[in-house]
Amino acid sequence: MYSFRNDYSDGGHPAILKALTETANQQTDGYCEDRFCLEAANLIRGYINAQDAAVHFIAGGTLTNLTAISAFLRPHEAVISAESGHIYVHETGSVEATGHKVFPIQSANGKLRPEQIETVVAEHHFEHMVKPRLVYISQPTEMGTLYSKGELSALRTCCDNNNLLLFADGARLGSALTSNSGDTEFSDYAVLCDAFYIGGTKNGAIFGEALVICNNELKADFRYHMKQKGALAAKGRILGIQFKRLFEDELYLNLAAHANMLADRLQRGILDSGFEMLFKSSTNQIFPIFPESVIVELEKYFQFYRWEKLDDEKSVIRLVCSWNTDKKDVDRFLDTLGKL
Ligand SMILES: Cc1ncc(COP(=O)(O)O)c(C=O)c1O
Q1: CA of 292 to the centre of ligand 1 (A)
Q2: Residues in domain Aromatic amino acid beta-eliminating lyase/threonine aldolase (predicted)?
Q3: Of 73, 76, 92, 173, which has the highest C-beta tally within 10 A?
């Protein structure tokens, strides 16, 4: 049964497995001070065109979010996020468990707008309340929608005007960068965000994320924060080797483009069969709306998440294509749908 449930269902790209095997007998320093991490960090600095960015490798997305956000904030400071934001809904309150309130903002398409941020700031104006200090976004959003470069720039301006930090969760950044309807490139994130991360777990790596800190004021002692939060891996080389391989050539972007291309094929096929989407997506996650009877039949052959119940008859499901999804899997889904 093929799973469209997620983009982390596959093990790891063969080129990465090969790089890990070929280096397995070499001894290195620990805790991300090995030559592979140093090289990977340099390659990433080249891609984002920011030679003085700090790059840290961390095992997973939740750990990256909570380590970075808690390091960037003072005890009384708080985070603003879309109500669908991953840190607000799906990380077991891990940012809040570090002592920082997360304000959820309603957003049908998963994106934040400057005026919504400004309202939260205006409502929190003195020391009897927490102080909003960091805006958390993900690119793409939880809904598979994308911030344009113009929208990101507007968020940056809003953050500058209100003394806020902008942090972008890039667990699926590759998908955003290679989307047909996206207009951002790697270097934009280094310019517009105080910090962001480049997701490996969902794009060919066995696991791992690369956190990039661009704002000089946030760089000091970050490795202390990592160690204290259990985010500094003794065998950090495993992360370095993977990111080195992903950024040695265009592998990172090629894998993301493949996932987007197959999600687009799947979306077009479903639309051609007469069904609708919750949102038209241009990333590797799509959100078709099906009657319950169709969902029950599809569940016999494929795995996917039921995303949202719209009414007694219809629900939204989420289908995710990955770097390893095959055109055959997509076509089999469409054939099965066509026969229902
Ligand atoms: C946007 C986003 N951020 C963070 C995470 C958390 O990653 P992890 O499961 O590696 O902690 C996910 C995982 O699904 C995600 O989609």
Answers
A1: 28
A2: 9-284
A3: 173
Q: Which tokens belong to 44?
A: 């990433």
Report the pocket of ligand 1 as residue ranges, CB < 6 Å. 60-62, 86, 138, 169, 171, 201
Order across the sheet with 54-58: list the strands: 54-58, 209-213, 195-199, 165-169, 131-138, 77-82, 102-105
Final residue of a structural domain among 249, 264, 293: 249
Place of tokens 């390659």: 43
Our mutation pick for probing the ligand 1 site, out of 146, 201, 283, 320, counting the most ligand atoms within 8 A of Cβ, is 201
Q: Per residue in 231-262, pLDDT tens?
A: 999 999 999 999 999 999 999 999 999 999 99
The atom number, within ligand 1, closest to the CA of 170 reads 1
Q: Is 314 helix (H, G, I), strand (E, B) or coil?
A: strand
Question: With the C-alpha atoms ordered 179, 181, 184, 189, is the resulting torsion angle positive or negative?
Answer: negative
Nearest atom in ligand 1 to the alpha carbon of residue 65 is: 4
Looking at the CA of residue 8, tell me the nearest atom of ligand 1: 14
Please give the structure tokens belonging to residue 204. Answer: 């060919």
240 CA from centroid of ligand 1 (Å)? 19
User: pLDDT for 175-208, tens place per residue?
Assistant: 999 999 999 999 999 999 999 999 999 999 999 9
Residues 168, 44 share a domain: yes
What percent of the chain shows pLDDT beyond 70? 100
- pTM (two decimals): 0.97
